Amino acid sequence: MSIEQDNKAIVGRWFTDFWGETCDLGIVDEIAAPDMLLHYSLHEPRRGREDIKAFMADFRKAFPDLNFWGAADLIAEGDYVVGRWEGGGTHTGPAFGDFLVGGLPAATGRKMHFTGTSVLRLKDGKIVEEIGLDDGVKALTQLGLMTTV
């Protein structure tokens, strides 16, 4: 297999096991670099395995049905893999204050569904960074944290 094929397989597992319907936080220790950077426009950047696991644990407590899935084939070049996705969830859990524009009180019942594109960089078979551009305006509007004109 080429490095691109290897990297796409790793990122495929990440998208399924970390971002997918049934999150397995053990995947973070397995394929994320110890100082991995996770950065999306809706949230503060997260760095390191423990910070990333804590972020996802809180996100999934607030949105128990949280799920993201691929919307197109992964594209790989050298150390980089790009993926398009869609997903969302319903806020039925505890208060969630991780959004950059504010927080939600407990169990609002509000639903979010949005899309995005992620660029992941790998080194020696580990994900060292995941930078995503998402339709945060859509998600925040659906959650009532933002209004559009």
Give your account of this protein's structure.
The strands form two sheets. Strands 1, 2, 3, 4, 5, 8 and 9 form a seven-stranded mixed beta sheet that branches. The relative contact order is 0.20. The protein is an alpha+beta fold. The model has no long low-confidence stretch (mean pLDDT 96). The protein is built from four helices and nine strands. The protein has one domain (3-142): Nuclear Transport Factor 2, Chain: A (Roll). Strand 8 and strand 9 form a beta hairpin.
Q: Looking at the structure, what is the overall shape?
A: globular
Oligomeric grouping of the chains: single chain
Architecture, CATH level 2? Roll
Low-confidence stretches: none
Q: What is the string of SSEs from the N terminus onward?
A: HHEEHEEEEEEEH
Q: What fraction strand?
A: 35-45%
Strand segment tally: 9
Sketch the major β-sheet. 7 strands, mixed
Number of helices: 4
Tally of distinct domains: 1
